[in-house]
Design goal:
Elements (H helix, E strand, L loop, with lengths): L5 H11 L11 H6 L3 E2 L13 E2 L2 E8 L3 E7 L2 E15 L4 E15 L2 E4 L8 E8 L3 E10 L2 E9 L7 E6 L14 E6 L4 E6 L5 E4 L7 H14 L7
Antiparallel strand pairs: 1-14, 2-3, 3-5, 4-5, 5-6, 6-7, 6-8, 8-9, 9-10, 10-11, 11-12, 12-13, 13-14
Length: about 240
């Protein structure tokens, strides 16, 4: 499903939840333990406008143009699209540089669009750190049968435990799962949810306190990267 179909799906979800404000279903333990931060600057998105939640804010957001190529004939086609974006994440104690690219490889026949890279090629890759060359964290997402999944891991690999990142497709008060994500959650290796990122409406972020110095800034930067992420369309 392309983003052109998102609006009707969310409208149906809006009606299915009794005309209430559309909200992402959040892990109950996380929702009960921390208060959600409202996001400013995510939706509606304005060029180079800061994205702000809690004590974190972006600086110097740079969203590059989408580059794509395609081949099409007799109603059948295939192509790729790639869009980079960069920003500086400012927090109480650290400033982190974040560099991402979102990409898609699609094939289509008539009105049917298929992701040709499902499970094999990342749809999002981000580097996060004070020094992206020497010491960084890497956020990677791929598309699978249930949505998007991936990891947030320190680079080089094996230098400490990382996190599991999964898309969320459930709305609060509705049993109807959404095709497109309504948010994301970032979990520790043991399954404990550390962060929830709601991407519908203006957006909200839930985040647990981190005992490891600097870890909360990394999670905040990854949350901003997910808020800014839009799977590019092959045109």
């Amino acid at each position: 499903m392309t983003h052109r179909a998102v609006a009707p799906v969310l409208l149906f979800a809006f009606l299915a939840t009794g005309c209430q404000t559309t909200r992402m279903a959040v892990d109950p333990v996380l929702a009960e333990s921390v208060e959600a931060w409202a996001v400013k600057g995510h939706n509606p998105r304005v060029w180079n406008r800061p994205v702000v939640f809690g004590p974190f804010s972006t600086e110097r957001v740079r969203e590059g143009a989408t580059r794509s190529w395609l081949l099409e004939g007799f109603g059948v086609g295939a192509g790729t699209a790639r869009q980079p974006y960069r920003f500086t994440q400012a927090g109480p104690d650290h400033r982190l540089e974040v560099e991402c690219f979102a990409q898609a490889t699609q094939g289509w026949w008539g009105g049917l669009v298929v992701d040709l890279a499902r499970g094999r090629k990342p749809i999002l890759v981000c580097g996060i750190g004070e020094d992206l060359q020497a010491n960084r964290w890497v956020l990677v997402l791929t598309r699978d049968a249930s949505g998007f999944s991936g990891e947030l891991q320190r680079s080089p690999e094996g230098s400490g435990p990382g996190y599991v990142v999964t898309s969320v497709h459930e709305l609060k008060g509705s049993r109807l799962p959404q095709f497109d994500p309504v948010g994301y959650q970032i979990s520790e290796a043991g399954g404990r949810v550390s962060v929830a990122v709601e991407t519908v409406n203006a957006g909200r972020v839930w985040m647990t306190a981190q005992s490891v110095p600097g870890r909360q800034e990394i999670l905040a930067a990854a949350s901003t990267a997910l808020l800014l992420f839009r799977p590019p369309e092959v045109k």
